[in-house]
Every structure is written in C-alpha cells, then in structure tokens.
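Weekly modeling sync, notes
Attendees: S.R. (lead), two postdocs, one rotation student

Agenda item 3: backlog of single-chain predictions. S.R. asked that every request posted to the team notebook include the full sequence so nobody has to chase files. The rotation student volunteered to paste the first one in as an example of the format we agreed on. Action items at the bottom.

Example entry:
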Amino acid sequence: MKIILTHEVSGLGTAGDVVDVKDGYARNYLVPRGFAIRWTKGGEKDVEQIRRGRKIREIATIEQANEVKGRLEGVSVKLAVRAGDAGRLFGSVTPADVAAAIKAAGGPDVDKRRVELGSPIKTLGAHQVSVRLHAEVVAKLGVEVVAA
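Predicted structure, as returned to the notebook:
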C-alpha cells in the first residue's frame, strides 16, 4: 500500500515521503496513529505542504546541528515528577516532558519527536537521553529526575 508519511518514522522515512508498506502495517499502525495518510492523487498536493513545514522545522546543516548539540550538552536538566516512597514514578517520563524541561532549563527548543529515550524512565535519579538533531548528529543529555 502506498502511503504518505506525516511524521518521521524510524526505519521508514521522514514527513512528506511517499513509501510503499504492507497493507496491515499501514492500516493497523501508521494510519490510526496519525503517522501516515493513504496516498491519493489529491494527496500529492499535501506532500509539498508537509515538506515545506518540515524544511522550516528541521536543522538544515551539520554545522547548525553541532551548534545546537553544544548548547544542549551544556544545559543541566532537572525534571520534577510525582513519585512514591520507593523512588518509583507514578507513570513515566515522556519525550514531551524532556523537551519541555530542556526549554525550561534555558536550552534550545527541541521537538519532542527528536528526543529518544533508551527505555521508559520510571525511577528517580540520573538518566541518559539522546536527541537526534540531524541524521548524523546526536546529542547525549543527562536528565536528573527528582521527586516533586
């Protein structure tokens, strides 16, 4: 099935790409979650609009990505969340929470879809988080999760 990606999907493509995937993957996963729309001739017009929006948001060059990486790695991020007595969180820390904490700590504005958590953060303490700024540039960031 031909689809048009509306978000970046790792291993498949970026927003605005027209890709061919298995019917079940598109019908049961990508389309219901809003990661893609079905390809139509009228949808080709949407592709240009999606690509223009992506071009505005993305970091164009490796030099820009390295500059943002330097600013990110210099930021100390503390995230206050609700936790139980044993240090377990009520829920987990999401990429959106990390992006908001980076912004609140005075760091650059980071898209939540660029934040990669190795595994769900469900405990207090220091954790490593990756931010994919460019296809070739990844910033490693330390996040301190503390009880609120």
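Discussion: group reviewed the output briefly. The chain has a mean pLDDT of 86.
Action items: rotation student to repeat for the remaining queue; S.R. to check formatting next week.
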